[in-house]
Amino acid sequence: MNFIVMPMFFLSGAMYPVNKLPEILKYISQINPLTYGIDALKHAMFQSSSMVDFSLITDLFVLSVLSVLFVTVASFIFERKK
């Protein structure tokens, strides 16, 4: 499990800003849902726009769409037992 979680955490922007990453890692971090959650928390904690990587609207939109997508996929995968 750490094989998946730790790279997601390190590429999320929790330790350092995403805009300071090399180009290939920027693209990888943009498909990481944790990046948008961390960035939304940065919006709530810091008033400075230099600390955030994306706009708050982008963060909320991506998190909302991915939440609906993951719940929909999970509802089709899991069956109810009778």
What descriptors fit this protein?
82 residues, mainly alpha, 0% strand, globular
Could you describe the 3D structure shown?
With 82 residues, the protein is mainly α. The chain has one domain. It contains four helices and no strands. The longest helix has 22 residues, at 56-77. It is globular and about 55 Å long.
- Principal-axes shape call: globular
Order of helices and strands: HHHH
Strand content: under 5%
Radius of gyration: 15 Å
Please give the number of β-strands.
0
**Residue share in helices?**
55-70%
Subunit organisation of the chains? single chain
Instruction: Tell me the number of helical segments per DSSP (H or I, 4 or more residues long).
Output: 4
Mean pLDDT: 90
Sheet with the most strands, sense and barrel status: none
